[in-house]
């Protein structure tokens, strides 16, 4: 009888959850960014694709693939928004474990054409395990903190355990020579630890984790890869035809955009001057075509999306939902901020993409699915408010 009663209560709770409404403001900002991102991707990529035998000289190569993944991603977003997010608490350890296995697998597989161990290729589908690792860290940390938040002030739990879990992921990612993903995962983990309630005087110990990763970078030879980027950041003109070329072309694109821009589709730098403009440096094309005004509007849209995401987190009916939303939204905000800083040469080039803009189908699919999880939290919040 007890089991029947509990099952009945779960069914009632699920039916009530399904009646909840997602945060329309959050969805609106997200869809606006997605649509603008698709337009800018096509504008930035069509000439490059049309003049590349690798892509069969097809000007629609990138936009067709990205649009396909965007449609699939929106569908996934809707599905995930209808799933009670509490299920991820039960799956936290399996997701983290799968992330570790994938990170180990990609190190065993042969490197890509650039010598990096970042991608797993499964026929026509390829993905970066680091993308899954980001989500794995968010879910596991949210789960552990929500259940054990009273223990977060204890050094053995709040610092040692979480540092070990985070350090393992960061170590595996850094020896892939994937510095940008390492920085993102590390910052996401530390942010959740701080929000979770560790003592602020222990935050300095997080820097120790960074030192450990730095030592790992030295042992793995990543520092040589990174030091060149630092030199090109300080003075890109010292190697204007080599390592500094992309940064210089990016700054030229931004400068030529002026206040109002050259107009949508009128970029000159995308005509094989800025290398692969559809990827990490797409924001430079945004600045050139839409100008300072357009760039500020897009940055403001990202800021409003992050703001609304944090509103959803604060209104979440439980700690797990709140921490889950904070982790996902912090990832989006930090990644967008770092990309803008890289494109404007404010920080060294870390090879970080701009969410919803840069080309990458599986990454876009993953991001939109995560947005669906945030919507699931907002749906539960709307039910509680009733």
Could you please describe the fold and organization of this structure?
This protein is mostly helical and 386 residues long. It has 2 domains: 23-82 and 230-386, no CATH class; 90-220. It is 70% helix and 2% strand. The protein contains 14 helices and 2 strands. The chain has helices at 2-18, 24-50, 61-81, 87-90, 92-108, 129-148, 155-174, 179-196, 204-220, 222-234, 245-257, 282-314, 319-343, 361-385, and strands at residues 120-122, 125-127. A two-stranded antiparallel sheet has the order 1-2. A hairpin with a 2-residue loop joins strand 1 (120-122) and strand 2. Helix 7 (155-174) packs parallel to helix 9 (204-220). The longest helix is centred in the last third of the chain and has 33 residues, at 282-314. The model has no long low-confidence stretch (mean pLDDT 87).
Which descriptors would you attach to this protein?
386 residues, mainly alpha, two-stranded antiparallel sheet, 2% strand, globular
